[in-house]
Amino acid sequence: MLNRGTAIAAENSENVVNFRVVRKNNYPYIFIWVVYYAWVIVFTTWWTASPLLDRVYGVGIRNILHSVNLISSAVFVFVIKKEWYTWTAKIGSVFTLVGMAGFLFFKNDFPVLSVSSAAITGIFLGCVNISILIPFVFVLNNTEKFYAVVGSNILINILSIIKDSTESSFVPGVSGALFSFVMLAAGLVAVLYFKEDSELFENNESVVMPSRVYMTLVINCVFAVLCKGIAKGMLNSAATTSSMPVMNIYYLGGLVGCILYFTVYKRTQKAIHLAWNITFGSITMGFLCFSFISHIEVLTAAFSIFIGIGSTIGMINMYYILGVIGKKYNSFRYVRLSILFIGICGGLAGVLLGNLIYEVDVFNLSVISSLISAGIMIVFLMMSPILTRTYYSDEWADDSQKIEIDNDHMSMFKKYSLSKRETEVCKLLLEGYTLRQISAIISIAYPTVNTYCTSLYRKLKINSRTELFVLFKDYPIKNKPH
Length: 482
What we know:
Layout: H1 4-14, H2 27-44, H3 58-79, H4 85-106, H5 111-138, H6 142-163, E1 169-171, E2 174-175, H7 176-188, H8 198-202, H9 215-241, H10 246-267, H11 271-290, H12 299-328, H13 332-358, H14 362-393, H15 395-399, H16 411-414, H17 420-430, H18 435-442, H19 446-460, H20 465-471
Antiparallel strand pairs: 1-2
């Protein structure tokens, strides 16, 4: 029998935060995600644009780069195939560097050519985004994904603090624009080390994904609108009216968020659910603080910290979930829908609402923020039972705590030539659900579920659920009936 210390050591060795399982051949994918993704967020998005200072590219160019980038990503995710990612990454990188070089060359003397170059850069940023997203989802294990998203957000917050604390440069004697270009080039060098993964091309069969998993897309969209849109608009308003260094406090909150996220995965079970609770709880507290900053200025610091924590944890969780679910079910369809929800539904809508809020006077913002925070709390409380059931019971949530996705048990269904729907019904039967419960879970009529059950019993050459349990005795059953 294992003693307590041995048991804890064994548990920690399988935990996703175990850095020792990061593979050297995947360093290029991790490196480009950390450096390139940080560059995109720090230098080209409205999310990190300061209302007080036009750093490097200015707010106008940032709006162009951000909007075109989001739209381009949503287009390229439907154009690029998984097996193309090595070449599209290289082609997109070349045109991105050319576009950015053109922008820097023309920006002082030829405004039209400068804006055109920025638009071209935004288009090919979308191509690079999808090309690095494919290996992030389908090649990296969970630990590598975890350190990629946490590492990039640490770098984002550090660079943002430096950017908003210096006059014109990151490094003494080097302009911000030149530093930005060098950082972009350094990040994109990693595409030269991209290699085709034969397993990625050979295994194109998707695993049946429960329909309830798509709820994560809604949560991602809500996060993008509330945290990266409305909350950022309020942050910009606070930065222009307060004597406090609001933006730097916000980024310090982001660093705290990175530490909290790591700790949650290191020390707790069901970490994804807890991370979302911290995200929406922090943002709600931030909204409440903002309602009173016109009367109590010290609450501005609390507002900035809470928004920084919530925005960072939510951003990390959003991309980590995308990576885990995409690989768990080998579903490029889920990845495509995620980009639509994150980029178009959440990203663009959030930017528009955030800019609108920024233009409103502080009193109206206080009233609006109070209503929004109350609404968030009510909606979140109403959704909590559903979220708990989704995150606590689904296999992908269990896998998110582990080093690697575990789909080995899915191969046991393949030899029986079950359809996707029959496989889904079979899994739910093994988990102890009744036919009527299955009907509700997968949203199909009870007679149809009964038909699938009869069909899969015929293919399996069995006549009862007892025989089903015997046949799949090695299947990891979580809710097996007594």
